[in-house]
Amino acid sequence: MTEQLEISDDLIAIRHHLHQYPELGFKEYETTKFLRDQLASHGIEVLDTSLETGLVAEIKGEQPGPRVVVRADIDGLPIHEQSGLPFSSKNPGVMHGCGHDIHMTGLLAAAFWLAEHRDRIKGTAVILFQPAEETGHGARHVIETGALGKVDALIGTHNTPDHKPGEIAVSKDPMMAGCVSFGVTFHAEGTHAGKPHRGTGPIEALASTILSLQTIVSRNIDPLRPVVLSITEVHGGDVWNVIPDTAGFLGTVRYFYKDDHDRVTRRFREIVESTAAAYDITADIKWDELAVPLVSDATLIGPVADDLPSYATSVPVITSMGGEDFADFQQLGPLVFGSIGSNGQPGHHGIHSPEFVALDEAIKPTAEFMVNALLRVESELA
């Protein structure tokens, strides 16, 4: 039996409040206080952890069973909002441009329902409001602090404006990509631009390397396996008549399968280091693994998918090259993840756009997925 929830005007007002006061990753102090107060007002126990922002709460059921986490991310983005919403951000230069206000409100609605229906819970529902998803380090921070303790499974969601409210997608295949950010700095000997023979300038090495890196995907990866390698920022030099002693670039890799990741990593280092050596200079490489591919547990996602048609419209997953640090929680237990429709109107704007709009109607299916996935996962594990 699945559950359908009522979304009150109070919850809509909560969503509007959260949208108006976004905070950046690891700075979500007022957001955390607001969430804590909301949970306390419904008799939900907030645990004492070492998290400075974000929080963990527990709702213990009347039946024995596993500890299952339901998570929402809480941080905003460094974007000046241009959505035109009457409840637009009041914090200049910060916006909930990825719909985390919908995620938070959905989890509050789910938590309020669960607190009133403890007889339906087989075990313990662990409520996680996670900081700093947008930085790629928030989930890792929660894991490292041990804030969750021992858990048996974890449930997460993300809204997608490409689907309408009431449409939900799940899959046993990768849903969101693994994400790497990289930076390369070449170190050379600077010189006067009119006397290039007296230096070992880095600009030529930088240009050659960027062009060579573009062959990694085209000549090393199966064309039926999506991989992206993008150079997004280039820097070097300050003066028109000086060949600089350093130059570099930044970028990202997105992938779905570990062997592709390993191949890209190896070829990237080989190309950078060999090109630097060919120009008689050195190179430093910064390689930051921000997220692994997001894949739901094959055993658990099947029953969750079977329940979907009773409270939502099941739609195919739109696979995304965006990263989602919820994937890091696989270190703690099996994952279940749902993609929740949040707009779907013609001409809508995507996430991370200053004009992004997630509709209030997305709160109800978000909350229902969280509740029904939790109840199903607990039944499967009990």
Describe the protein's architecture and organization:
With 382 residues, the chain is α/β, with parallel strands linked by helices. The chain has helices spanning 9-20, 29-41, 100-116, 138-145, 203-213, 215-220, 258-278, 298-307, 363-381, and strands at 45-46, 55-60, 63-73, 122-130, 153-160, 167-169, 176-187, 191-192, 227-236, 242-243, 246-255, 282-291, 313-314, 320-323, 335-341. The strands form three sheets. An eight-stranded mixed sheet has the order 1-2-4-3-5-15-6-13, sandwiched between helices. Strands 7, 9, 11, 12 and 14 form a five-stranded mixed sheet that branches. Helix 3 packs across helix 9 and helix 8 packs across helix 9. The longest helix is centred in the last third of the chain and has 21 residues, at 258-278. The model has no long low-confidence stretch (mean pLDDT 97).
Short summary:
By secondary structure, the chain is of the alpha/beta class. It has nine helices and 15 strands.
Key structural traits:
alpha/beta, 31% helix, 382 residues, 9 helices, 15 strands, 5-stranded mixed β-sheet, elongated, single chain, 8-stranded mixed β-sheet
Strand order of the largest sheet: 1-2-4-3-5-15-6-13
Q: Beta fraction of the residues?
A: 25-35%
Q: Give a short account of the largest sheet.
A: 8 strands, mixed
Instruction: List low-pLDDT spans.
Output: none
Total number of helices: 9
Task: Give the helix level as a range of percent.
Answer: 25-40%
How big is the Rg? 23 Å
Distance between the termini: 16 Å
Count every beta strand, where a strand is a DSSP E run of 2 or more residues. 15
- Morphology call: elongated
Can you write the helix and strand succession as a string? HHEEEHEHEEEEHHEEEHEHEEEH
Integer average pLDDT: 97
Sheet/helix structural class: alpha/beta
